[in-house]
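Handout for the seminar on molecular recognition.
Each group receives one record of this type.
Step one: identify the two inputs.
Step two: read the structure output and locate the region that could contact coenzyme A.
Step three: write two sentences on what you found, then compare them with the reference statements printed after the record.
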Amino acid sequence: MTDVSIRPAAAADIQACAEIWRESINDYTGRLNQHPIPDDLGRIIRLHQHLFATDPGLFVVAEREGRVVAFAAAVRRDRLWFLSMCFVRPREQARGIGRQLLETILPPAGGDAVLATAIDSAQPVSNGLYSRFGIIPRLPLLSISGYVTHPEVLPDLPPGTVAVPFETIASGPPGGPGHTELTSAVNALDRELLGVEHPQDHRFLRTEGRHGYLYRDAIGATVGYGYTWETGRVGPLAARDEALVAPALGHLLRAVPSRGAQAVWVPGAAGSAVELLLGAGLRFEDFPILLSWSEPFADFERYLPISPGLL
Ligand SMILES: CC(C)(COP(=O)(O)OP(=O)(O)OC[C@H]1O[C@@H](n2cnc3c(N)ncnc32)[C@H](O)[C@@H]1OP(=O)(O)O)[C@@H](O)C(=O)NCCC(=O)NCCS
């Protein structure tokens, strides 16, 4: 055991948490001769701010002599408890701090929560620690990135299916009928494919500047949604019919001009998406992440998550 004290995070801790995130990842990836994380922490800080805004009670830090040495953050979306972050400064690892942080924010044993997270496959310690709580690695989450060098393999949307920009549907004032229609269409897809709604995460994606599209079939029924971003990031993606996953990806890869390489997080269960992206010229990047859970909750053949930090 260790003499750190654990307390709820404050907004002022977020910068230190982002630095611990970078330091502890670079520590083990460096030993594997992988590239270090870029210095710009802007994106991870915005994610931490989102986690803190939606679930302040599930964001905790460990402190020694007034210095933050570790942190953990989870989100609760209906039944789903998802561990987004757990990082301990390298010098402080293997002394029980990760376990203490986790025990502080885990839901009470015996409840109906589904526990889940996404872990680097190159990290036996975190895989081992979370498995002790029943959060067991079940499915690879593949980072596929690069440039579309074979655009001719990207399928078109099925005849009659259209991609409607979110802004076209939610064009009126906030809270108006367009916003309500969009939110309920997206929530219904999320309940069906992810097992839970997460409108707060969709708001985050839109404030980040990601462009959302709702897919509608020839009779106007909602059949999926997807996001794309000028940074090159594509996803999340939800498709009511598995056969729509590849055409929707084809649409998203072409929908906005990308400033650089494009990148998609693809669960191994979504085989058609993997084949399409590799055929189009993208490549596997780094080791796979492992989607881990205590019991099945989502259909990863038809749902491509936001990132390992937020489903
Ligand atoms: C992963 C991390 C958060 C764990 O925190 P920590 O304080 O070092 O871990 P703890 O000492 O609390 O616990 C480690 C546990 O892993 C177990 N473990 C270690 N190696 C293992 C292995 N190869 N197989 C199974 N279990 C293993 C230990 O036995 C211990 O479990 P126990 O408490 O039941 O005995 C921390 O090491 C870290 O930040 N690592 C680098 C970044 C990272 O990978 N973060 C996780 C991202 S999802």
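Reference statements: The radius of gyration is 20 Å. The mean pLDDT is 96.
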